[in-house]
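## retry 2 of 3
previous attempt timed out at serialization; input unchanged, resubmitting
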Amino acid sequence: MTRDTESWVKQAEKEVHACLNYGNVLHDKMPTSKELELTYGHGDLSDHIAYMRRFAAALDELAEALESQDDSVDELAFVLQVYQVPSGLWAGRLMSGAEQIGGCAECVSAEAVAYEARQSGIIPDRVEILETAPATEVEEWHARLPSIER
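## retry succeeded, writing output
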């Protein structure tokens, strides 16, 4: 199962709105404006860099949420499915339709999987967070576990 897209979009919009209301982002709050001004000084640059990364991540999350809501997306799009494995870590697999064409190593968070995928050159059309690991992943995990005899 994938995330509820309507609540995902609302949550992503909320984060973008929170970023827009940050003290050093100036905008006229008009829906047709399209202009933002980010003011920063050299004395507090490290704080602003962290904010810029948060804002960029919020916009990226909103774009992914809106994309997942779009019914016109091509079925053969590249989809990064992110899921939690039995060890508690997160992994990902790149899908084209029903075919798995790649995978990502296990990471400490779902966001880290998507980040590592992009860093390696995998640019998915969308990212899906699965509520459960695919059945094949669970089967492989159990096959790797040593048996314990008493």
